[in-house]
Structures are given as C-alpha cells and as structure tokens.
Specification:
265 residues, alpha/beta, five-stranded mixed β-sheet, 10 helices, 10 strands, 21% strand, elongated
Length: 265
C-alpha cells in the first residue's frame, strides 16, 4: 500500500473511532456520572498532560479520575496480574500489542493519540559538555544513563538510536540503566552520569535543571507512538470511553501539544 493510501486509511480509522467514542459519550453520559471513579494506568511521561486533561474531564463529567503512573512495561504486567484498571495508555505500541494479543484490552477503543522525540540531555553547568550524539564517543564521557531497554520504552528507543547512529558498541560499557525515565533524569541532574537519553517532553518538564544537547534524528528509531485503550471487563466502560474521547478531542490535543507532544491536527 502506498504511503498516501496508508495515511488515508489511518485517518479514516481515527475519524470512525472519534465518531464512535463521541456517540457513546452522548448516549451514555448519565451512566458515567458523579460517584464513578475511573482508574487510569499511564506512562510516566504522560503525567502532566493527563492530570490536566483529567481535571477537565472531571469538571465536565463528574467522574473522579485516579492515576497510576509508571513505566509502560511495569503497568502492562500489573494489568496481566488483574490490577483493577479501566484505561491503559502506553509510551509504545509494544506493551499494548501484547495486551491486545492476550485479550486484555478492547481493540475497538484503541487509539494512537500522540508522538514524541528522543533527546540527549546533560546539565547546563556540566564540567564535560556535549553538543551531539557523536560526543558520546569521547574518552572523558564515562557514564551515560538510559532506560532499561527490556522494560522502559524510552530505553528501547535509546538503544535503537545508538545502534542506528553506529554508537552502540562504543558506548555500551558506559551505559547505566534506569528502571524509569525519572531515574535517568535524576542521575543526570545529580551529575552521577555525564549524559542521558529521554523523551523531549520529559526534558522540557525539568528545563531548569537539564539541557537538551541534541535531538535524535527521527529516522534513527521507530516512531515514538503513544497508544490508549479501554481494559476489557472494566465496570466503568462508558466512563473509560469518554475519558479516551477527551484525550483525543481538540481540547485534549491542545493540552498534549502544550507539553511538547506531537499531535497531528
């Protein structure tokens, strides 16, 4: 299928999803009413925009939203172990694909709603400054933090970037793995490492402490795609669908853009 046709199909699917979610949001608005509490498990990088979207959703629906933020891989395992979750939002399709394959989500509610970029960070007053990914080869750069590629989506994207740029073998002995993106940023801010790799939006959230030294070429890793879906068997089906409708609405998209996420118009 040609690129233009593929994009047309994707946007048609998104249009249909919006129509369906909007339909349910109107038809069942009374079902998702005051007194309902919705549990949303979401990638830690979504914390700031989701809390703002949640406040808007609570104001409009009367439904209270409780969050469980963390690494997508950890959240996936919690859902597989029957954690009481209504909505899951992952920082990569891998975790959602696995849950969909095992029947844990409702595929018709799934939506790819945002993108992100990978960046190299350091502190503005670091004694050994970096200005490009190639600088990671320098002998004086001895410790580089990334998320654990086995469980942290940002870590997997970091590995792909370093391999694509031909740096993986050179930097592997210098790598320090974090179990979540926040840990990577903490290592950098405390100067326990010389540099780190995180999502652009995470770096923007701590711009007073961290400096973006370089942005990874988009072609150096798979597209960073955030995806969301309703968990199968939820007792708050309509409230969960309405929350997703809010995330992918214009209001939700504007909030995501404000925090640096890539959202197509």
């Amino acid at each position: 299928m040609h690129g233009l046709e593929r994009n047309t199909v994707k946007w048609f699917e998104r249009f249909i999803l919006l129509l369906l979610l909007g339909f349910f949001a109107v038809l069942f608005v009374e079902e998702a009413s005051a007194g309902t509490e919705l549990t949303v498990s979401a990638a830690l990088s979504l914390k700031a925009p989701f809390e703002e979207i949640g406040r808007l959703y609570e104001k409009k629906s009367g439904v209270r939203v409780a969050y469980n933020f963390g690494p997508s891989g950890m959240l996936q395992k919690q859902i597989e172990n029957s954690a009481p979750v209504d909505v899951f939002a992952s920082a990569s399709p891998k975790e959602m694909d696995s849950l969909e394959g095992s029947g844990f989500i409702m595929p018709a509610t799934r939506s790819n709603f945002a993108g992100n970029a990978m960046v190299l960070i350091t502190t503005s007053d670091a004694p050994r400054q970096l200005f490009s990914f190639a600088d990671l080869r320098k002998r004086e750069i001895t410790r580089i933090a990334i998320g654990n590629p086995a469980s942290v989506p940002a870590g997997k994207y970091s590995e792909e970037t370093l391999r694509s740029l031909g740096l993986w073998d050179a930097v592997q002995p210098k790598l320090v793995y974090g179990e979540q993106v926040k840990q990577v940023m903490d290592y950098v801010s405390r100067r326990e490492v010389d540099a780190g790799m995180v999502f652009l939006t995470d770096a923007m959230g701590r711009s007073k402490e961290l400096r973006v030294a370089a942005e990874a070429p988009a072609s150096s890793h798979r597209p960073v795609v955030y995806t969301i879906a309703v968990i199968r068997g939820t007792k708050n089906n309509m409230a969960a669908r309405n929350f997703i409708a809010m995330v992918i609405s214009k209001e939700g998209s504007d909030i995501l853009r404000k925090y640096g996420f890539i959202v197509k118009p």
